[in-house]
Design goal:
By secondary structure, this protein is of the alpha/beta class. The protein contains 16 helices and 15 strands. The model has no long low-confidence stretch (mean pLDDT about 100). GO terms for molecular function: beta-glucosidase activity.
Length: about 450
């Protein structure tokens, strides 16, 4: 057993996202998002699940906040649904949507919980997708308008801001692999989307500074940490490409003002180019204050010319996996955080980390011991990272409660709280009480 003491000002939290928990999809003046459309497209989402009801947090947020108080968190990461604020994307502002988030944020503040707000967590207004989505500068300008509305409304109430959640998922999972909304499968489209969202990010940061908004702003890439399956140069290069597409493809433009040349060249070989316009890279590389990092797993990658555009495949090494099939390997978080130092010792928050463990109720309890073990290993690595002098300032468990896990629908459960999707009854799992104790003590005590 080891005791890991965390810094006294370390932030402890949980994370969710609008489309995954709110429900009330046709209420409060909300417009249609690309996920409403995608979920209604046969075969896209397991069981034909959608976010019409989800966890009904639109109506039950006060109960959710009571559970957050019971958990003892001081930080809560959530996202605002753009379609609630500007239902058709760049037209009229929906006051009812703003009022909902004011009620929600006020309740959080009343509970002594710091709001940590993601502006875009994948629920693009459908009207903008119909007109080319992130590859069309109209969407970029619409995002800036939406961001400025939110900045002005919540400046002083919200002090932690993220522009985009998981840009790799927005660009490549959703427009190259076609697994998430809107489901395109085209390399040039995905590169256009990545560039569009980066320009939108940079313009939003410029607005944030120009409007004198209080607080800090950043972006939240997801990590795809990988190590080479063998010592061969081909496997190392395949590994580098896999890591770079999640990280460098977005953070080089932001921190260096240019894309990683080896990846630009790789895509050029595949006939795709980045649609850079005059001034774009200066806009994108606006200084930011923080990074959110989402980490779940890592893999061993090797070269395979048949393995997609990156010619890089993950080798199944027989590691213990979570119920969504991701290997449990907390070491990757430590390695990645050191990799990230090439951008400087920037302030980092782990804005997502958690395990899909589909345990169900057993005599009124959920004994999700595997989830506790996952968190134990990852928090131990986080202590190790902090101990190395890396500016890791806080941790948000994904997720507060079971919710709509995108293409997996409701079958995959990541929550500290179990949600019965028929009754919407919330039941804290054993991991909830374990995390409650870590937060109360501000230390981790490993059980083995
Ligand atoms: N990386 N290479 N993949 C190659 C081929 O993968 C096929 C499948 O791919 C993926 C990759 C990543 C994910 C994913 C899901 N979450 C969890 C959500 N995060 C944001 C929050 O809303 C959570 O619900 N994080 N990541 C899903 C599918």
């Amino acid at each position: 057993m080891t005791i890991f003491q965390f810094p006294k000002d370390f932030r402890w939290g949980t994370a969710t996202a609008s489309y995954q928990i709110e429900g009330a999809a046709q209420e409060g003046g909300r417009g249609v998002s690309i996920w409403d459309t995608f979920a209604r497209t046969p075969g896209k989402v397991f069981n034909g699940d959608n976010g019409d009801i989800a966890c009904d947090s639109y109506h039950r947020y006060e109960e959710d906040i009571e559970l957050m108080k019971k958990l003892g968190i001081n930080t809560y990461r959530f996202s605002i649904a753009w379609p609630r604020i500007i239902p058709d994307g760049d037209g009229e502002i929906n006051r009812e949507g703003l009022d909902f988030y004011h009620r929600f944020v006020d309740k959080l503040l009343e509970a002594g919980i710091e709001p940590f707000c993601t502006l875009y967590h994948w629920d693009l207004p459908q009207t903008l997708e119909d007109d080319g989505g992130w590859g069309n500068r109209r969407t970029v300008d619409a995002f800036v308008k939406y961001a400025e509305v939110i900045f002005k409304e919540f400046s002083g109430k919200i002090n932690f801001w993220l522009t985009f959640n998981e840009p790799w998922c927005i660009a490549f999972l959703s427009n190259l692999l076609g697994i998430h909304a809107p489901g395109n499968r085209d390399l040039q489209t995905s590169i256009n989307v990545a560039h569009g969202l980066l320009v939108a990010h940079g313009k939003a940061v410029q607005s944030f500074r120009r409007l004198g908004i209080t607080g800090q702003i950043g972006i939240a890439p997801n990590v795809c940490w990988a190590e080479p399956y063998s010592k061969s140069p081909e496997d190392q290069a395949a590994c580098d490409r896999s890591i770079a597409l999640n990280t460098d493809w977005f953070l080089d433009p932001i921190y260096k003002g240019s894309y990683p040349q080896f990846m630009v060249d790789w895509f050029a070989e595949a006939g795709a180019t980045v649609p850079i316009q005059e001034g774009d890279m200066e806009i994108i590389s606006q200084p930011i204050d923080l990074l959110g990092i989402n980490y779940y797993t890592m893999g061993l990658n090797r070269f395979n010319p048949e393995a997609g555009v990156l010619q890089s495949e993950e080798v199944d090494m027989g590691l213990t996996k979570t119920d969504i099939g991701w290997p449990i390997e907390s070491r990757g978080l430590y390695e990645f955080m050191h990799y990230l130092q090439k951008y400087g010792n920037v302030d980092v928050y782990i804005t997502e980390n958690g395990a899909c463990i589909n345990d169900d109720l057993d005599n009124g309890k959920i004994n999700d011991d595997r989830r506790i073990s996952y968190y134990e290993q990852h928090l131990a690595q986080i202590h190790r990272i902090i101990n190395d002098g890396i500016n890791l300032k806080g941790y948000m468990a994904w997720s507060l409660m079971d919710n709509f896990e995108w293409a997996e629908g409701y079958r995959m459960r990541f929550g500290l709280i179990h949600v019965d999707y028929r009754s919407l009854v919330r039941t804290p799992k054993e991991s909830f009480y374990w995390y409650q104790n870590v937060i109360k003590n501000n230390w981790l005590e490993t059980r083995s």
